[in-house]
Amino acid sequence: MVTWARDVGRGDVLLHRGADERVGCRWVQDKRDGEGFQPVDLRDWTAVFSMTVPDGTSVYSRSCSTTSDGYAVAEIPASAFEADAWSARPVGDWRIDATGPGGRRELLGWGHWTLDQ
């Protein structure tokens, strides 16, 4: 898991064909109350993990589970990357976007992905 604060940094992932995968991130904020960085409660948020290839085409998306301690995690089954078409598109970008109360939208995490053949 990757932990990010205010500025969302890039997190690259290596996905393995034939294996279950988990991709996620954790949102923490400094509320400037002297307590330091604290997780953001995401229980009332919805989050989506999505993957695109270099030409911008969306190739996979999945809902994430969200937790009270700031995590948004996508559980990706091994069957997700079985199709032969993945061999021709083994790299791209991923991101986790969240929507919260009142329609607030946040980018929680992003990076590059590579599918290990």
CATH class: Mainly Beta
Global morphology: elongated
Order of helices and strands: EEEEEEEHEE
Query: What's the total helix number?
Result: 1
Q: Please state the average pLDDT score.
A: 90
Q: What is the gyration radius calculated from CA atoms?
A: 15 Å
The residue ranges in which pLDDT falls below 50 over 5 or more consecutive positions are 1-5
From the 3D coordinates, which CATH architecture would you assign?
A: Sandwich
Distance between the termini: 22 Å
Counting helices, strands and paired strands, the structural category is mainly beta
Q: What key attributes describe this structure?
A:
elongated; nine-stranded mixed beta sheet; 54% strand; 117 residues; mainly beta
Explain what you see.
- This protein is mainly β and 117 residues long.
- It has one helix spanning 85-88; strands at residues 2-4, 13-16, 21-30, 37-39, 46-52, 58-66, 71-76, 91-99, 105-116.
- Strands 1, 2, 3, 4, 5, 6, 7, 8 and 9 form a 9-stranded mixed beta sheet that branches.
- The model is unreliable at 1-5 (pLDDT under 50).
Strand-helix topology:
Blueprint: E1 2-4, E2 13-16, E3 21-30, E4 37-39, E5 46-52, E6 58-66, E7 71-76, H1 85-88, E8 91-99, E9 105-116
Parallel strand pairs: 1-3, 2-9
Antiparallel strand pairs: 3-4, 3-7, 5-6, 5-8, 6-7, 8-9
